[in-house]
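I am writing to request your help with a piece of structural work I have in hand. Here, with my thanks, is the record as I have it:
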Amino acid sequence: MKRVFLAEDDPTMVTLLETLLKLEGFEVVVLDLATENLLSSLRADIPQALVLDVNLPNQSGIDIIEAMRKEEIFKNTCVVMASGMSLKEKCLSSGADDFLLKPYMPDALISILRKYTKE
């Protein structure tokens, strides 16, 4: 089963995405954003795909993707970044595979995840 990790600080968005992605056949892992080091959580369980919010409490999604791309273990992890600000170029140049401007249609996320994940 395709596993998608969510690093999103909006509880409503987390619930919506978790429900929709499960309906589409994905296994969803919601990351605990209260943890001080999201990167160490990701190292413990390497995601096939990660939906990463740019603005997270205690940490920046940009910093996380830049750190991930320096590590060989994450070379096959698809990272889709999302933000309410138009940061597509910044996110892509930092190492994201794709970017979604909030609010986005869940179908847009699902089609991106299907493109990057294999069984």
Helices lie at 11-23, 38-44, 61-68, 88-94, 106-116. Residues 2-116 form a domain with the Rossmann fold fold (CATH 3.40.50.2300). The CA atoms of residues 79 and 117 lie 11 Å apart.
